[in-house]
Specification:
Blueprint: E1 7-9, H1 15-25, E2 29-37, E3 40-46, E4 53-57, E5 75-81, H2 84-94, E6 102-103, E7 111-116, E8 122-127, H3 136-149
Parallel strand pairs: 1-4, 5-8
Antiparallel strand pairs: 2-3, 3-4, 6-7, 7-8
């Protein structure tokens, strides 16, 4: 049985403001923006090339047991790109306030930049240069095939 991570609910205070931010400044695609049940609006957005989306909703948290996370309380959400300089240029052109890239080590995967959404949810963007030639979906499919053969 495969278990795929496909949607992460994100706590925000204003759905329209968050939708516009992620669509216009970060470049996510709006997959859904509708009332899916009476009184329950969902906005689902997906980063270009990703198999995982974020979901914004005013009543999502009522369906999930446990405490309701506060808008801005999520930190460490992470996107990966193959060229961090090109990604930064694109995001700056969109008007996103994104940090300069920080290289923690010379290894692939050790360069990051950061931004926050209007509520303060914190994101990092990691440069993984090998993704230009080895997309994650292909790496995972090959790994799964090897595991089945072992």
């Amino acid at each position: 049985m495969d278990y795929t991570l496909e949607v992460i609910p994100l706590p925000v205070s204003d759905i329209d403001r968050a939708r516009d931010f992620y669509r216009d400044k970060v470049g996510f695609h709006v997959d859904i923006d509708q009332e899916v049940m009476p009184g329950m609006r969902i906005v689902q957005l997906t980063p270009p090339g990703s198999g995982c989306s974020i979901a914004l909703g005013n009543t999502i948290w009522e369906m999930v047991p446990g405490p309701r996370p506060a808008p801005g309380s999520y930190q460490g959400l992470q996107l990966c790109v193959s060229d961090i300089k090109a990604a930064r240029a694109e995001l700056l052109e969109r008007g996103l306030d994104v940090s300069e890239p920080v290289q923690y080590a010379p290894d692939d995967g050790a360069t990051f930049m950061y931004f926050k959404d209007p509520d303060g949810n914190g994101w990092s963007i990691q440069e993984y240069r090998r993704r230009a030639t080895e997309p994650l979906h292909r790496v995972l499919a090959e790994s799964a095939a090897e595991s089945r053969q072992a």
